[in-house]
Design goal:
It contains 9 helices and 25 strands. It is of the alpha+beta class. The protein starts with a strand and ends with a strand.
């Protein structure tokens, strides 16, 4: 079993305060630490690396736009979660330089990952362009495991070191942490079809160039402006796009959501790959449908539990928070009201969510809520 014996939070962005939390966890006898930070802390990377190199117990985690701690959204500061056991952590570096069919990557996974564990945390640099291909390799190598995690980084989409390790903050990395305990998962998104489908006629990984042989952004813009009050200008793409994600039509009619975050000429830059020849929809949502989806995810975790979990780890999309605004408190309430609330509730608002799809495959999701109890 994996037991949490320490939890701590500060609103202060100061690294010295953060270190005090780490030292307090060490004094409590923790053998591993989950470290979470808000990107608005503006961490001094050099100072943080020096600090982490002196920590004599295992650390892991990431830097995220916002965090969740004990039923509330955290805008600044740090969270430290201490584990009684020493958890096995492996950091896969230089993810963007790996080739999709790289046998060496699969060999590294096979060599380093503990196959005795059936559940894992995953933290990755959301701005590594090859992350999704690497996640596919994980599923190919590890098969029937359960996994929960999310993309780290900040909302300015500037690449920076964002994964905590004993070597310091890592960039362009994916981190896998073995949990020696049953993990119960719940996943849902609540977005509905607005228009489509469209054939993706040209794309390169996470960038879509054309739909139905027509420029991608012009098509997207025409549909949204023709059926809503929204109007695009040079500065408001993300503010509008957060309301209208893309949805890939997958197996068993499952819709995998993709979040357009930037436009470059006629190209749509998304969080996650959109394969050529895939069929995609333009989606829409409303507060009611999104909140209802969280209730579904919560009920899934209850239904799937082998034993009663004491801890609830939340990976929720930052763009859901931005879309819902003040109503996001209803999303948090849905997790709590429909859940027999565990002893601890913590998590992240992420740039992409990682978990198992309904088919069991490990997938990168967007605009979704993933809940894990253990």
């Amino acid at each position: 079993m994996t037991d949490i014996i320490f939890q701590w939070h500060t609103k202060s962005p100061d690294l010295k305060t953060f270190l005090n939390g780490i030292l307090a966890a060490t004094e409590q006898g923790c053998k591993s630490l989950l470290l979470l930070a808000c990107s608005d802390n503006n961490i001094d990377i050099t100072a943080c690396n020096k600090m982490l190199s002196k920590v004599n117990i295992t650390v892991f985690g990431g830097v995220y736009p916002k965090l969740i701690f004990n039923k509330k959204v955290v805008d600044s500061g740090y969270i430290v979660i201490g584990f009684k056991q020493k958890l096995a952590v492996h950091n896969f570096l230089d993810v963007s330089s790996r080739i999709d069919t790289d046998d060496a990557t699969e060999g590294e996974i096979e060599k380093n990952i503990n196959h005795k564990s059936q559940a894992y945390f995953l933290f990755h640099d959301a701005l590594s362009p090859n992350s999704e291909s690497f996640i596919d390799s994980l599923f190919y190598c590890l098969g029937n495991i359960k996994i929960i995690g999310g993309g780290a980084g900040s909302l300015d989409f500037i690449p920076r070191p964002c994964i905590f390790s004993n070597q310091g903050l890592l960039q362009d990395a994916t981190q896998l942490v073995a949990l020696n305990t049953p993990l119960s998962l719940g996943i849902s998104h609540g977005w509905q079809v607005f228009d489509g489908p469209y054939l993706v006629t040209e794309s390169s990984k996470h960038i879509v160039h054309s739909f139905n042989y027509q420029p991608a952004f012009s098509t997207y813009k025409k549909v949204i402006e023709g059926a809503s009050e929204h109007r695009f200008n040079d500065n408001n793409f993300f503010d509008i796009a957060k309301n209208f994600p893309l949805g890939i039509h997958g197996a068993n009619d499952e819709i995998v959501v993709r979040d357009p975050i930037q436009v470059d000429g006629e190209n749509l830059d998304c969080v996650g790959n959109i394969p050529i020849n895939s069929m995609v929809y333009i989606l829409k949502g409303d507060t009611e449908s999104l909140i209802r989806s969280v209730e579904i995810a919560t009920l899934m975790t209850n239904t799937n539990q082998v034993t009663k979990g004491k801890n609830l780890f939340v990976v929720d999309c930052i763009s859901r928070y931005l879309y819902l605004g003040d109503s996001f408190k209803l999303e948090l309430a849905a997790m709590i009201d429909k859940h027999q609330l565990p002893d601890r509730m913590f998590g992240v608002l992420s740039l992409g969510e990682i978990t198992n799809s309904h088919s069991g495959a490990i997938k990168l999701l967007n605009k979704s809520t993933v809940l894990g109890t253990f």
